[in-house]
Amino acid sequence: MLTKLVELGINFLILAGLMLWYQMLPTIHILWVPAIILYTVLAALTIAFVGAAINVYYRDVGQALPVLLSLVMYASPVIYPLQLVKDKLLTQQAAGDWSNFWYTVYTLNPLAGIIDAFQNVVLRGQPPDLSAMVPGAILVAILLPLSYLYFKRAESYFADVI
Q1: Which end of the chain is more exposed for a tag (fewer CB within 10 A), N or C?
Q2: What is the reported pLDDT for 158?
Q3: Exposed, middle or buried, 45 (CB in 10 Å: 0-12/13-18/19+)?
């Protein structure tokens, strides 16, 4: 985690340089960044605890986890804005009666809220869409303690397996 946070700091310096170059000054909403980073760290820890514990017993998980995370990235608003999904499902009701349900399922992916929040506060100068972050945050709040307990329980058998 620490090395990735250092990389993030370096990337923020590069981003700050580019923003200065293109004369994009941050707004007051940039103060949300530490909270969003904390949320990102907690979401990553949730996956890391389970992934590390399972990887000890099943070595293939180490190969499969990056692939699974890549698939999750495709289901996240990296290339397309979250507003597009919101408009299709909530405004246009593209899935009919199930539209609100599918939007909630979509926002259970913590990356959806995290990526959109970073884009809003850093690039658009807007506050984060908290309604898009809440379902994922609730999921992380439930799964983080469970994944930590699973890791601690499995940790006592690591030496036997390795």
Answers
A1: C
A2: 83
A3: middle
Q: Are residues 65 and 79 in contact, defined by beta-carbon separation less than 8 angstroms? A: no
Which pTM does this prediction carry? 0.89
- Sorted by sequence, the CB contacts under 8 Å of residue 65 that are 6+ apart come out as 47, 51, 55
Backbone angles phi, psi at 40, to 5 degrees: -65, -45
86 and 103 Cβ atoms separated by less than 8 Å: yes
DSSP string, 60-104: THHHHHHHHHHHHHHTSSSSS-HHHHHIIIIIS-TTGGGHHHHHH
Encode pLDDT of 84-112 as tens digits.
Answer: 999 999 999 999 999 999 999 999 999 99
Q: How many CA atoms lie within 13 A of 97 on its CB side?
A: 0
> C-alpha angle 110/113/115, rounded to 5°?
100
Tens of pLDDT, residues 120-132: 999 999 999 999 9
